[in-house]
Amino acid sequence: MTRQTFVERSFLAKNPSVLWFILILALFTLGVTVLSEAYGVAFLSTSFVKTLGKTLCLCLVALAMDLIWGYAGILSLGHMAFFALGGYGLGMWLMYARTEEIVVAALAQGGLPATPEEVRQGIAVQIFGVVGASEFPPIWAFAHSFWAQMALVVLVPGGLALVFGWLAFRSRVTGVYLSILTQAMTLALALYLFQNDSGLRGNNGLSGLQNLPGLGDVSQDALSVWFFWASAFALGAGYVLLAWVVSGKFGSVIRAIRDDEQRVRFLGYSVEGYKLFVFTLTAVIAAIAGALYYPQAGIINPAELAPIASIYLAVWVAIGGRGRLYGAVIGAAFVSLLSSWFTGGRAPSVPLGFYTVNWVDWWLVLLGLSFVAVTLFAPKGMGGLFDLWAGVRSPDRKGAALGPDDGALMEREAKE
Amino acid sequence: MTALLEVSGVSVTFDGFRAINNLSFSIGAQELRAIIGPNGAGKTTFMDIVTGKTRPDAGTVTFGERSVSLLSLSEAQIARAGVGRKFQRPTVFEDQTVAENLTMALKAHRAPWRVLFWREGAADRDRVQALAEEVGLADALSRKAGELSHGQKQWLEIGMLLAQEPRLLLVDEPAAGMTLAEREHTTRLLVEMAKTRAVVVVEHDMEFVRRLECKVTVLHEGAVLAEGSLDHVTKNQQVIEVYLGRG
């Protein structure tokens, strides 16, 4: 009896959701491949495969949000900024290399081989003509190199999170003040990128990202499936990584920080160090998700960094269920797919006689009401449905936190 | 006997209110000490200063053989140096099991990177088991801490402090809200702990202090009013006036 907790159990045995998740993700990937236009029976359109691939990227960033918010208790409203920065990072290389192909082909028609200087000049005019410039800004110094830009995808958002987090956490900014601070960071970054002289083409953003350099012969039908596979792999890897992070003592410490950070300090843990670690790790995961998302979207512009995007992210995680990784994935997938259905104009309008509910306009109202309803009546979110299904009843504590009140159902009894 | 903790000439002011006034205090390496005093005497502020939560305006606080100044360290660094603190209200992590609470407190590396790769070994399991037995929670290891009774939470917190293996333990009103049987258990725990380390108990309850049978320091208006055995200080005329006389 007394030794029951200490049965040696492997990581997977302790986290059955990991195997289930990988299994479902693998079946889903297989299913989409079989139904795709390029490799299957062409039941799903290429644009829908892209939508599904993008959704997987959103699920990955939602996982990151769940780690920082659901587990560590830090409501960051800046993670979609890291997501977009990752997209810009890879987008710069995609746009440079693709434009280079076009410029080289155009110059080759002139007869004489073009000098590297001419090529570079040609690319600059092509890319920056739209903002009235013809020179490469300094931040494009590595755009010609795939590997350098891939490194920047991780280093720039990671570095920004490290510096911002260090300043914020060191000053012990917590709770709603930290949320406001992260939102301010996001807004400042978006406003900066909207400027034409930001070096990233202002509000035009980067476009044509769906064309992969050197793969002009490969159809979008095939490319969409390739990116879908890459997104599925990244989501699976991200899930396993984060499940491992939260399963051990580290997970215990960050949940403890969420519940009572002062007490954690008196245990000898440097709370600021942990917060910074989680903030930076999740920023990097968000950036990788963004780098996979935008080639499927084809275009990125500063509107993607608007604070509202990060608020949506928080809404997905809340609706899906905070503090459980699969909850975040379910929330992101369900709400973002539903959102594109409602706002895509395909949802049938509801005629009420005196007024017609047009979902393009009313979807946000519905989403807002669902968010309020989930927060008030189902704080466990959609993930809580699994508890119902598994027969895990929550001890009824009349709204109080855990307590030893007479007759209250104990956690252990509830699970039996 | 050299002192483990040496507080000298410490003063702290909150918005003009002098909470601690030129306080000096020292405690040996294996000593049990009770601090008593009326509300507002500065008992909690004293603990806040030693654990790094509050910075004093003047004075020095040194700890250990090498007389490390605690004033330049953060709360977490002070805790790692060997100062443990038990709060008045039991503060355990209610959403986690007793075993998880104890494991978190076990003496081990505290840096995020080390904790990330830390995996429980047989020695850690035995230690957690032994600690749980010591505080009488061996049957409750897999229960969530939030389900424990008030007294059990207090013991869990004491178990967590033991797991930290501190050299100095600051305990704020350990007997508050406990039944008589629970108090006796707590008294035994504290006396046992003080055999291998310094323990400072802040307490209101005179009966409880009497059971501890240790040296007593009386605080009043942020300074030491009297020091000695309980019988000695309770005979002190000033102490009777400011504290006991009111009861």
UniProtKB/TrEMBL annotation, chain B:
Record keywords, A-Z: ATP-binding, Nucleotide-binding, Transport
Identify the domain of life.
Bacteria
> Pfam families annotated for this entry?
ABC_tran (PF00005), BCA_ABC_TP_C (PF12399)
Give the matching Gene3D superfamilies: P-loop containing nucleotide triphosphate hydrolases
Query: In this entry, which stretches build a coiled coil?
Result: none
Q: Per its UniProt record, what SUPFAM superfamilies does this chain match? A: P-loop containing nucleoside triphosphate hydrolases
The GO terms this record gives for MF are: ATP binding
Task: Name the CDD domains for this protein.
Answer: ABC_Mj1267_LivG_branched (cd03219)
Stretches assigned to the ABC transporter domain = 5-246
Q: Extract the InterPro entries matched here.
A: AAA+_ATPase, ABC_AA/LPS_Transport, ABC_transporter-like_ATP-bd, ABC_transptr_urea_ATP-bd_UrtD, BCA_ABC_TP_C, P-loop_NTPase
Q: Which residue ranges does UniProt annotate as crossing the membrane?
A: none
What name does UniProt use for this protein? Urea ABC transporter ATP-binding protein UrtD
Taxonomic source organism: Paragemmobacter amnigenus
